[in-house]
Amino acid sequence: MTDVEHELTATLWRWSVGEKGGDWFFVTVNGEIGEALSATALMHRLETGRPAGWGAVKVEANVGDTCWRTSAFPSKERGWMVPVKAAVRKAEGLIEGEPFTLTLSF
Questions:
Q1: N or C: which end of the chain has fewer CB within 10 A?
Q2: pLDDT at 17
Q3: Could you tell me which residues come within 8 angstroms of residue 15 by beta carbon, excluding any fewer than 6 positions away?
Q4: What radius of gyration, in Å, describes the C-alpha atoms of the chain?
Q5: What is the predicted pLDDT for the residue at 20?
Q6: pLDDT of residue 44
Q7: What is the CATH number of the domain that holds 101?
Q8: What's the pTM value of the predicted model, to 2 decimals?
Q9: How many domains does the chain have?
Q10: Three-class SS of residue 90?
């Protein structure tokens, strides 16, 4: 199967896990791209007979000149969540709450 690129306008949001846990930054993926992630997770489960860890889907993410591999995680409250690590935020000047273009391949 060939990966398909999906482009969206994303906004960083922060998940704080307390003083010792620090902060994690994510973008939310909903709509058609969220549905495509759900379909990909379902196909994995049907093909292997089991869900991936936490129901995650492996993705390749791209912002500007930065490309990295990560996973999208399902959330009942938010749809799909994709973590954005500090190195990416710094390299691309991403700021919480400001929109940017994200490309996901899966």
A1: N
A2: 82
A3: 23, 24, 25, 26
A4: 14
A5: 75
A6: 84
A7: 2.40.30.100
A8: 0.88
A9: 1
A10: helix
